[in-house]
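G., the chain you wanted modeled:
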Amino acid sequence: MKANFHPYQVDAIERMLREERVNLWLPMGAGKSLAVLTAVVAMRIAGVGPVLVLAPKRVAVNVWPAEIKKWDHLQHLRVSPIIGTAAQRVAALNRRADVYTINYDNVPWLRKQLGDAWPFEVVVADESTRLKNYRTRQGGVRSKALAEVAWSRTRRFINLTGTPSPNGLKDLWGQNWFIDQGKRLGSTYTAFTDRWFTTIMMGGGARSHEPRAAAMQEIPGKIADVTLSVDMRDYIDTHEPVRVYVEVELPPAAWQVYDDMAADMVAQLKSMETIEAVHGAARTIKCLQITSGFAFTEGGHEEIHDAKLDALESIVEELAGAPLLVAYHFKPDLARILKRFPQAREISDKNIDLWNAGKLPMMLCHPASAGHGLNLQDGGHHLAFYGLWWSLEEHQQIIERIGPVRQAQSGFDRPVYLYYILARDTIDHDVLTVLDGKATVQEVLKEKVR
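Predicted structure as tokens:
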């Protein structure tokens, strides 16, 4: 696919090539990875590299490699995810590549494995808030391990995030240390807090740092020269929702179940139980269950994979506390989401009030139960589709619960974000095609039974 760059992506690429260390504050769906990888192409031509991308595990395994495959001008880049067992990580590390990806939890292992032979001239911290706890004398194990080579052996450093300060301005010091070694915000975290915060002693010796009046103006001003911050309202029509497609790869065992069901209308689960579809329409339903991560059985249901749960977790992490409405279709989806996210609540009259009061970080809703009349826009402007169904009316209705019209009616000048969690190369994309009006359910069914 040929890439068409937005002006802010061009600005980001130019900043990365012009400046050796930079913060890129771009929201989810703004094309951060495309901009970075385009800059990487130019860096590699200039002989700079290789590149190490730090990211949440699912993003390191799936998102960055998929981005390279997606765009024509990136096809020649070689990527190696350093994921799996120790032996698999070593093999990936020894593989020749332009871009290596690794999850944050494995950074201490990587540092120990490489010792003084750290080869990465460029480090990209995707979701750089994972570095917010860095301190020069103490702090997180992962950020401490990275700090050992961030200046001595790394030439370029790029922080990527759409939510740089989810817990307030105090989150900025740790991340920005990797950009300027404390030059702008203070050589230590204590120097940072002493200058811009009031320390409040809590019970049990705990401390809370509350920003002083001038902090909101002065701190952003201090790091503005090394930061590109993008407000999507400057580039998009906020009268239309922003769509973000979050693709997941089905694990091999799950893919085998899906493939058998799609091809033969019968599949065997891990428990050795056999599931069967009696006609074409039933097959599509079974396939949608499998992409969601389970299948109904004679005795209830059996879980097959967690790929969509992991993707939803990535969305939650990137939103960094912003409330998220989640649409599901099957009851086992609801149960599994609630189990993974204890902070989530199912929609109800009481929970709607909590949601609109900003007291619920996640609310789960079946589109059929969120019809006409419900006002959910006060609680947030982010909606994730964990699973899709064929009903266009239900799909449109749940979007409208927090949609652009209701946002405007309530006085909010903010875009609505829709996150579609889709299993790659599966029926999920067929359902979305139907919902987009590019095909009918009948056409999809005919195609599936040929």
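The mean pLDDT is 90.

Shout if anything looks off.
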